[in-house]
Specification:
By secondary structure, the chain is α/β, with parallel strands linked by helices. Helix content is 34%, strand content 17%. The protein has 13 helices and 14 strands. It has a seven-stranded parallel sheet with strand order 10-9-8-11-12-13-14. Strands 4-3-5-6-7 form a five-stranded parallel sheet, with helices on both faces.
Amino acid sequence: MNGAEINDFTVWDHPVTTIKLLLSTFARDNWGARIIAAVPDAKLSLVTSEDAFSGTEPCDADIAFMTREVTGRSSKNADSPELAAFQNVLRRAPRLQWLHIHPAGAERPIYVELRRRGVKVTTSSGATASTVAQSAAGALLGLARRFPALMDAQRRHAWEPLLGEKAPRDLQGQTAVIVGLGPIGRTLAAMLKVLGMSVVGVRREATPVPPCDETVTYNRLFEVLPRADWLVLACPLSPVTRGLGSAAALARLPAGAHLINVSRGDVAIEADVIDALANGRLAGAYLDVFEHEPLDSASPLWDMPNVIISPHTASHSQSLNENVFGIFLENLAHWRKGQKLRNDVDDMS
């Protein structure tokens, strides 16, 4: 970390009498008492973004916690009023040293801006690993067992057993190539192994990652794609992964392969995915993220019978807020002791 070791009354390079935490009114009302109880030996005060936004003076927060209700009504292409207000306060918080955010990714321009100012930005990577992996596994099972066709027949009141060529292939023995072996990728890999599938993991380093049968680097992706019955995108967005799901990559897949994208919309080139679905190169897809969100109502993806669309909701669960809060509390303890922060964006990039 930059700056001196933190003690009870020193925040990095300057002494303070009270550590000030910026958060939303919702977060204060739900977790304020627990946050204060977690640091009983320090002076900690809470300032809400709503109160700070209504004032005209600079915000003197030392740290900030941006929770889901602040960004929940935003998309990656449009900020909600709540998010715009919170960002406004962050921009006029000259003492800010650290911001913790609820998502696993930190692609919004405000995060880049703050990091350039020297502010540490940490994410909640890992908080949604189980739920996103469950969504991906559920979609994989649904596509493999041809649930979209069954649901279409149900809507038509048609009795159409999956016989002959319509019979699904057994998942046992099929291969999934999982791009990205963070908490989501590793959790999903374990689930797919239970189904009897082979798993090839793709990451920055070729170091073996259990439970994958094989691990390769990104520059070897094209070598393993011809073996992929399922291409799963579960990686962060970066210069290496942007546009990774291109026509060239999809052309390397065997005919009848499936695509699952629970990473970021810009990891796959949407027009190329649509073409591959339309011409049969892809037999189906589960898409939770898109290049532009919300997905345009005119997109052909909505009406493709072999596509399951999820409105960027693979991570949603009733336990999400508590999981994020737990990571924030862990990092708060680390920050006060001058220790390495979990999910520091600068360490993960």
